Amino acid sequence: MTTTPDRQGEEAPELPALTGFGWLMGFFMTVLALIGPALLWLSTRFDPADDDRLVVIAMGAVFTIGGLATVASHLRQNARAREVHRALDRSGVRATAEVVSSKRIWVGDVSTPAEDVDFVVTGPGVTTFSARLLTEDVGRYATGTVVPVDVDPRTLLFRLAD
After folding, report:
1. Which residues contact 115 (CB under 8 A, 6 or more apart)?
2. pLDDT, tens digit, for every residue of 97-114?
3. CA quadruple 44, 45, 47, 49: dihedral positive or negative?
4. pTM (two decimals)
C-alpha cells in the first residue's frame, strides 16, 4: 500500500456545458435572461398613469440585469474550465493514480450516493502527490485500483484520463 504524501493535487473543473446539468442550467438561465426584456416590453402596454407600470418596469430591469449577470457568470466559468483543460492538453503528462481509500457518502437533498476517493498520483516527471475525487461512479474505485490521469506537473492539477 502506498503512503499518502504531503502534497495535495486539485481536480480540474468539470466542463459545465457538456453535462446534463450544465445544459439544464443553461436553459433556465436563458429563460431568466429573457423574462426581463419581456417584462420591459409588457410595461409599454400599460397606461402611463398606471402605478403598476413602474412595478413591471422595476421587475423587468431587475430580471434583465440579474439574468445577464447569471448568464455571463456561467459563460465565464465555462470558458475558464475549457482553458484549464486546454492547458492540461498542452502541458499535462500521463500518470497513474492508485486508490488508497474509497468511502461511500450521500450528497444532496435527495440523498444521492457518491464516492469520496483518495488517490496517490505518481508518474514520470511528476512529484508524487495525493488527490481527492468526489464521484457518482459508486463502486468503480476500489482500494488498490490504478487509474490513468493527466497531470500538470507544475500545478498538480489533474483529471481522470479518458
Report:
1. 102, 103, 104, 105, 134, 135, 136, 137, 138, 139, 140, 141
2. 998 988 888 777 667 788
3. negative
4. 0.65
